[in-house]
Design a protein that fits this description.
Blueprint: H1 14-20, H2 34-39, E1 49-55, H3 60-73, E2 77-81, H4 86-95, E3 100-103, H5 113-116, E4 119-134, E5 141-142, H6 144-151, E6 169-173, H7 178-188, E7 199-201, H8 204-212, E8 217-222, E9 231-233, E10 235-236, H9 243-246, E11 254-262, H10 267-276, H11 279-288, E12 299-301, E13 307-309
Parallel strand pairs: 1-2, 1-3, 5-10, 6-7, 6-8
Antiparallel strand pairs: 3-11, 4-8, 4-9, 4-11, 12-13
Helix pairs in contact: 1-3
């Protein structure tokens, strides 16, 4: 599914489909009707155009699933995109080469202030992220200090953290990845530490593939990319990597999923972003795809990474 480009779909189920799409033609980028849109109370209108996106691979599957539904009901809209990392997505939407930039991090952490001021943020979901290890690794719980040691190169053998006598293979994400930025911030905080890896991978799907074929490895993924048949997710500080533990910040490694557009975005882009905030997506698709609705969170996180109660 990752990096699969979408082309225009043939229209199916016009009557039922149009009833399910909300907020079309609204000012989704910078508008004031987000609450009504999320409730599905805004009447539908016809929409056409091309929507393009790039950015975080962590929630690309969610965007793709929503795009399928949206295009089925709106045959004159084409939605296509890739998941080349949060940094590239934000740079692209700021430059106008795509209409939506998907990101695991706030735009303020990647762009200059004069670029950010021209963008509008849509928080569409929350995702937990955590360390994963090869199936042959016996360690099932790591502290933040141990993770810091492993990913800074200070801990190099599994026996140092209670495992077998084997060299640790560190699989990292490339700079610009929002998943990497989230994991790095949770593990290292404000410390200036060289984040090491035996390999640097482009996308979440690449991590899945490499983890499945590498013994004694460790990496990190968002919950939606966990695959217990190929590798094991591990606890952090004794807390299981579960969505319920993210909602109150018991599990510390998580991010809000953002979809940014320009303030003067076209109507098709606005309509699709309104749909991302609708009941069709927020009430069902978000959880089906392994994410957490923003409304389920008991805490919020700002651009600096500070967590506070809602």
């Amino acid at each position: 599914m990752l990096d699969q480009a979408y082309s225009r779909r043939q229209f199916l189920g016009l009557a039922g489909g149009l009833a399910s799409i909300v907020g079309l033609g609204l000012v989704g980028c910078g508008g004031s009707n987000a609450a009504d849109t999320a409730k599905g109370s805004v009447a539908a209108e016809s929409v056409s155009g091309e929507v393009t996106y790039d950015g975080a691979s962590s929630f690309q599957a969610l965007v793709e699933a929503a795009a399928e539904k949206f295009m089925d009901a709106n045959p004159d809209v084409s939605i296509s995109g890739s998941g080349n990392g949060s940094g590239k997505g934000l740079t692209a939407v700021a430059a106008g080469t795509v209409t939506i930039g998907n990101s695991d991090v706030f735009a303020e952490t990647k762009l200059e202030a004069d670029q950010v001021k021209n963008l509008v943020d849509h928080e569409v979901a929350v995702v937990g992220m955590g360390p994963v290890v090869s199936k042959n690794v016996t360690v099932d719980d790591l502290s933040l200090e141990q993770l810091k040691g492993i990913f800074s190169g200070q801990i190099t053998n599994w026996k140092e953290v209670g495992g077998d006598d084997a060299t640790i293979v560190v699989l990292n994400r490339k700079a610009g990845s929002g998943t990497r930025a989230t994991f790095e911030a949770a593990v290292f905080g404000d410390e200036a530490v060289d984040f090491k890896g035996d390999a640097e991978l482009d996308k979440s799907g690449d991590v899945q593939t490499q983890m499945a074929s590498t013994d004694n490895a460790i990496s990190y993924l968002d919950f939606s990319h966990f695959d217990g048949s190929k590798f094991n997710a591990v606890k952090v500080e004794g807390v299981e990597p579960k969505s319920k533990n993210v909602t109150d910040d018991s599990f510390k490694i998580w991010a809000t999923e953002h979809m940014y557009c320009a303030k003067d975005a076209d109507e098709a882009t606005k309509a699709f972003l309104d749909f991302m905030l609708s009941d069709d997506v927020q009430g069902k698709l978000v959880e089906e795809q392994g994410f957490i609705p923003v409304s389920a969170m008991k805490v919020v996180k700002d651009a600096s990474g500070k967590v506070s109660a809602k």
